[in-house]
Amino acid sequence: MLRVQGKAVHQCDSGWVPVFVDQEQSISLMSVGFLLEKPDEAVVWRGPKKNALIKQFVSDVAWGQLDYLVVDTPPGTSDEHMAVVDALRPYSPLGALVVTTPQAVSVGDVRRELTFCKKVGLRVIGVVENMSGFVCPHCAECTNIFSRGGGEELARHAGVPFLGSVPLDPELTRSLEEGRDFIQGFPESPAFPALSCIAQKILNEAPVGLC
Amino acid sequence: MEEVPHDCPGVSSAQAGRGASCQGCPNQGICASGAGAAPDPAIEEIKERMKTVKHKILVLSGKGGVGKSTFSAHLAHGLAEDENTQVALLDIDICGPSIPKIMGLEGEQVHQSGSGWSPVFLEDNLGVMSVGFLLSSPDDAVIWRGPKKNGMIKQFLRDVDWGEVDYLIVDTPPGTSDEHLSAVQYLAAAHIDGAVIITTPQEVSLQDVRKEISFCHKVKLPIIGVVENMSSFTCPKCQKESQIFPPTTGGAEVMCQDLKVPLLGKVPLDPRIGKSCDKGESFFAEVPDSPATLAYRSIIQRIQESCSLRQPKGENLVGS
């Protein structure tokens, strides 16, 4: 999605070098995707092996000076989630952003994710409701394809902040597919204000001087 | 199983019990003795249990959120419309068990009988099993590592008394990990008809489907075909079509041609599908004339045809 598929990961004295996605080197990335010989290769690993790699990603990557480390996880409440919480615990993580779609079926699973956060002592920064409505490009009618309201209700039920709703936008999808910067390319998009607002809320969260 | 070391080499590895990371593990003695490498007796027990199950279908996806559970549920509904067809739906998504909600069975409980666990019956000919039925609250989280999830899957396959079943549909979580390996390994002796892989049209989803196909080849699991979900959206107001998840690389159609895997069909996005699932009702009953219903029915028919072409149970079919 960040247009760095096929790049290789190198070693330096202080560990693995993450891959920079932009000229300014403001965003770096580490993923098992960089360690595969072929992009279609399946990673058919059981829990323990996944846990070991996740631990390495936290401790053996030479991230350098970072303002934010964002960790994208798979769905669920299993090995990967426990491994990353354990690995990051010594570094006092800011917390978890929990993403859902509006429908009850999604909320039904995500409420368990919130229980996971509570059980492992991970603070929830807030809930984000994604794919929240689609504005038809032909007639501007907004259709709630995946229902509505679930994210906000979930946040209320769990007593955590609701950070916002991001509408469905095919241009956002297309940007991800083509590895373009959505924020730069589509400031007119309906998803743009939602995403910017959520980012701003997180920026307001972090206490100054936290390292 | 929290005591299993993080760098565990795996119980069936040559290093089992002998590696540096094995020191101090409570299972070290067992692994070092080679007992871990012996075949699990449950595999034979599951083979016995599966003798009354004619066709077994795994529903897989590379990515989450592509509509796998929705599809599994509606595959079950569609097959069970013929009251002479016995259908079983097994949900092995241990951390995110959505099947009870989608089938309108939330709050139901599992009972034990002399012959094993009884599935929860939605209809006389449609039985369902999920870890969701074993949880007391909708907020309960199943925070289990791989080995414990595998144990649950083993129990589901070995201890549930499905009875005489024409189709067992196994709904899986996204990915290619413990649950998928366990399902394939435990059913190894019982002959799986194949896998149906669900995707959306975008390249980001297809990339993961290619991995899923690679997984199927690796574990010799036949592929019945691919379903492209959320294919297009027709605005209810102006009736014009939009591609919400644009097929920037040709969608599932091109991928299936490249990888020589059947494309079973394309299901358009219909907001009423999500609503039906949220209410725990069959979309086919709610909206029988929707293009999505027609697409589903055609796909289900193709799956039935594919299953009837495969060898009957009892014969070992070498995977494709």
TrEMBL record, chain A:
Keywords attached to this Swiss-Prot or TrEMBL record, sorted alphabetically, are:
4Fe-4S, ATP-binding, Iron, Iron-sulfur, Metal-binding, Nucleotide-binding
Recorded hits in Pfam families, A to Z, give: ParA (PF10609)
Taxonomy, superkingdom: Eukaryota
Note the CDD domains from the entry.
Mrp_NBP35 (cd02037)
Q: What is this protein called?
A: Cytosolic Fe-S cluster assembly factor NUBP2 isoform X4
**What species was this sequence derived from?**
Balaenoptera acutorostrata (Common minke whale)
Q: Which gene encodes it?
A: NUBP2
Automatic annotation (TrEMBL), chain B:
Where is it mainly found?
A: cytoplasm
- GO cellular-component terms in the record? cytosol; nucleus
In the record, biological process GO terms are: iron-sulfur cluster assembly
InterPro entries given in the database record: AAA+_ATPase (IPR003593), Mrp-like_CS (IPR000808), Mrp/NBP35_ATP-bd (IPR019591), NUBP1/Nbp35 (IPR028601), P-loop_NTPase (IPR027417), YlxH/NBP35 (IPR033756)
Q: What's noted on cofactor binding? A: Binds 4 [4Fe-4S] clusters per heterotetramer. Contains two stable clusters in the N-termini of NUBP1 and two labile, bridging clusters between subunits of the NUBP1-NUBP2 heterotetramer.
User: Which SUPFAM superfamilies does its entry note?
Assistant: P-loop containing nucleoside triphosphate hydrolases
Can you tell me which residues bind [4Fe-4S] cluster 2? C235, C238
The compartments listed are: Cytoplasm; Nucleus
List ligand-binding residues for ATP: G62, K63, G64, G65, V66, G67, K68, S69
Where, by residue number, does the polypeptide cross the bilayer?
none
Q: Which residues form a coiled coil?
A: none
Alphabetical keyword list: 4Fe-4S, ATP-binding, Cytoplasm, Iron, Iron-sulfur, Metal-binding, Nucleotide-binding
Domain of life where this protein originates: Eukaryota
Where, in this chain's numbering, is [4Fe-4S] cluster 1 bound? Answer: C8, C22, C25, C31
Domain AAA+ ATPase intervals: 54-210
* Cofactor(s) recorded in Swiss-Prot or TrEMBL: [4Fe-4S] cluster
Any GO molecular function: ATP binding
Q: Which HAMAP family match?
A: Mrp_NBP35 (MF_02040), NUBP1 (MF_03038)
Entry-linked PANTHER family: CYTOSOLIC FE-S CLUSTER ASSEMBLY FACTOR NUBP1, NUCLEOTIDE-BINDING PROTEIN NBP35 YEAST -RELATED
Subunit structure of this chain's protein? Heterotetramer of 2 NUBP1 and 2 NUBP2 chains. Interacts with KIFC1.
Query: What family does the entry list?
Result: Belongs to the Mrp/NBP35 ATP-binding proteins family. NUBP1/NBP35 subfamily.
Protein name in the entry: Cytosolic Fe-S cluster assembly factor NUBP1
